[in-house]
Amino acid sequence: MAVTTNRIEKNVQRIREEIGEACQRARRHPDEVGIIAVTKSADIDTIKNLLDAGLTELGESRGQSLASRAEEIHAYLQRRRTPLPAPVRWHMVGHLQRNKVKSVLPVVTAIHSVDSLRLAEELQDRAGRMDRRVDVFLQVNCSNEEQKYGCAVGAVFHLGEMIASLENIRLVGLMTMGPLTDDPNESRMAFARCRELFEEMRGERVGDDHFRHLSMGMSSDYVPAVEEGATLLRIGTALFE
Ligand SMILES: *Cc1c(COP(=O)(O)O)cnc(C)c1O
């Protein structure tokens, strides 16, 4: 059954309060922190209710689902009467296979999971044919554990420079996942490491003025993520409980 707009609004309010408190501790402004609603566990009616609750930045972790849901929501928006506070934008937050680039690119705003030159080159090629530029985050493995995806810390700078030089790609920031534990302090260390890399790259002007986002923090660790400088949180389950 769909999660109601009312319930989503209550959850957003609670999350926003926690973000506000974390911002105060970190001396940041809450406007610097955006929420991407990750819809992989939500049904279509719940996604519509997310829109009614004012959440228009949506994320999916699988290429296939992103393409089909974006299409379905697009059709719904053509019929919808009440205007939204902002246009709907889709974010690809999970691993993207190269053979899915073609179907995802027409509907996606940003890809958070670029971790190889091969994938970046496929995006460059396909975006070029569509005559568009796509926003891309470089995904970094900042925890000490073996993660399946994400570029190694030592390779980030060089890969970032190469990706930023592709003309149909805009390198807008770094993305990281906290380690697979329930310990927020483990996540905090990974986020702090990502922030350091981010500052280092920004200091060298990698990606120029576009390079200004840190995509980190999920339902279990968005508080330490905000404290460590996240500008985009990718939140799923905490919106739907
Ligand atoms: C599912 C997912 C999220 C959201 O996770 P929750 O724990 O539901 O908040 C964020 N980022 C990625 C890459 C995901 O796959």
Descriptive key words:
TIM Barrel, binds pyridoxal-5'-phosphate, 9-stranded parallel β-sheet, alpha/beta, 9 helices, 241 residues, globular, single chain
Write a structural description.
This protein is of the alpha/beta class and 241 residues long. It has one domain (5-240): TIM Barrel. It has helices at 5-26, 44-52, 63-79, 101-104, 117-129, 156-164, 184-203, 222-227, 237-240, and strands spanning 34-38, 57-60, 89-92, 108-114, 134-141, 151-152, 169-176, 213-215, 232-235. Strands 1, 2, 3, 4, 5, 6, 7, 8 and 9 form a 9-stranded parallel β-sheet that branches. Helix 2 links the parallel strand 1 (34-38) and strand 2. The longest helix has 22 residues, at 5-26. It is globular and about 45 Å long. It starts with a helix and ends with a helix. Bound molecules: pyridoxal-5'-phosphate (PLP). Residues 38, 40, 61, 93-94, 218-220, 234-238 line the site of pyridoxal-5'-phosphate.
